[in-house]
Write a structure and sequence with these properties.
With about 400 residues, this protein is an alpha/beta fold. A seven-stranded mixed β-sheet has the order 2-8-7-6-5-3-4, with helices on both faces. A four-stranded antiparallel β-sheet has the order 11-12-15-14. Strand 11 and strand 12 form a beta hairpin. It is globular. The model has no long low-confidence stretch (mean pLDDT about 95).
Amino acid sequence: MKINGNFDKLVPNYLFADVARKTNEFIAANPDKKVIRLGIGDVTLPLAPVVVDAMQRGCEDLRDQKTFKGYPEYEGYDFVRNKISDYYQSFGVKIDADEIFISDGAKSDCGNIGDIFSQDNTVLIPDPVYPVYVDANIMAGRNIIYAPAGEDDNFLPMPDKNVKADIIYLCSPNNPTGAAYNFGQLKEWVEYALENDAVILYDAAYEAFIRDELPRSIYCIDGARECAIELCSLSKTAGFTGVRCGYTVVPKELVRGGKKLHDMWYRRQATKFNGVSWAVQCAAAAVFTPEGQRQCRKNLDYYHENAMLIAKTLDELGIYYTGGKNSPYIWMKCPFNMSSWEFFDYLLSNAAVVGTPGEGFGSCGKGYFRLTSFNSHEKTAEAAERMKDILEFRLNVNS
């Protein structure tokens, strides 16, 4: 018997576990300090009322013999997939309902989608990046290469024609940087994938935060149906971080090695996944009703105001950042040439504010820091004020 030795190649702790440990140690040593968390990207507002009502009705169905549901369909119930298809149509993208697979979240699908690909593939991943993309492929033993990003390209890496990749991970709006690709930039990635017979795994978990004229889906780009799989989530769109529901789109035109990836993903899900519960899918369908969209938009607007407050503070301090306007994340440059973890300790010790060190997202994240907009208005405003006070004080001392 042999274990998977690839696990030895992983960093010892998941990034957010280290953040939690350091935060808890600080709280234990400073019980009088009021810590404000702008680190982990977990939502704080309750679910939209229309969503809760639909979930409750779904639960009531389960107490009646006539409406009881057991195992769900592996790919999700038709009424949910039709709603999502209509949602895509609302911003001009045609996706058939039977190309949509309901899941328990984008994180699961990002980690599991590799099952339909050979371990021999070379994977191209932006840096900095959401850790799951990297860790899942390290576990699988794949060769990973990176597309470095920085201030020169506003943390939006573009394809290098001298680099050959088989699988490409993209996330827009991006986690952790909050940066979002425009139509022309995504077109370049689609052309690169088609030229290299590659497949793009496009994480669109934050598309609902987009406010500018930017693509809400990679399928806004001609040719993407022949080279891209899109992974989406209700975690941020509708606050489902604890409820767990997302969806993945695999177009039927997407063929590699003579096989439809759509059929392969269905076969994988039928073997390893038992579907999303009836009550949760009832709740998910309610998200895509007109009233559900209105109520969820209200929560998204709330988080957007928080992001703008943080951005305004950084503007006043003259600190470089990306994100905020089309994303719940602010990606800031650490002041005073601090490293990411140095700034984490400085901010926690002096302002009792928690963020996420950028180097936990990759080597190109060194010297940067991620803040999230998912706390309350009051706490976000207080955190911004505390941060402004300690940084202005140090700026004055240095001057």
